Amino acid sequence: MSAEHPQKNGLLISFEGSEGSGKTTQIRCLSARLEDAGYDVLITREPGGTEIGEQVRHILKHADSGRGMTPETELLLFAAARAQLVREVIMPALDAGRIILCDRYLDSTTVYQGVARSLSEEPVTVINRFAVGPLMPDWTIILDLPPEVGLQRVRARGNDLPDRMEEESIEFYRAVREGYLLLADDLPDRYSVFDSEQPVELIEDEIWEEMQERYFRRD
Ligand code: Z5A
Fold it and tell me: Model-level pTM?
């Protein structure tokens, strides 16, 4: 299905954006449409998706032991969770021809740890590439939203556990947003940016339209 990665049969689509930008919502919408059309879909989330990854997620987000974590440690833990997910879950699913919808992938590390935490670009790039091996996304959907709106949505949704990653300043989330938009500017073929302030159904239609343009329409 992908000309860029002839070794794999499926399709790897990542969803990126800041908190509350609607990734989970839009992944569910796209998954439902793809399944209705007869495709075999797998959804992953990061950090997590494997037993190791879920334990790493707990350390990164909720554990008291995560307090005082350095940005370098954070980078390596996100990469470790992804390395496991790629080999244990994503590679076999791609080989089986499935469409994988990733709720975050390596661009989250580029933007959160690289841009917002100001880690140097070179180690972030090298560690990211080491973690994913050959599996770069075929397409990355960025859901763009002012951080104030996203954080408001998350607060309105209510949260069960204290979350270390959601305690940052508004400047941090602004840097995240800018980081994603810069990635999209640099590589417009891989990234598509959708205005996530629009109603859910409108964004869903826009994503579906572009999905068909990219992968299903052959004139
Ligand atoms: N992180 C990192 O630093 N480095 C990495 O490499 C990786 C991650 C992989 C993961 O948190 C944290 O880890 C995240 C980045 C960091 N932290 N921060 N800060 P997570 O997995 O718990 O959460 P998240 O990825 O940030 O997602 P989220 O907060 O759950 O948001 P979402 O999935 O994008 O949005 P949603 O759940 O679909 O929607 C949120 C609410 O808005 C919900 O009530 C919806 O009904 C509503 N919604 C959705 N769309 C709309 C529209 N269009 N209009 C109105 N309301 C809407």
Answer: 0.95
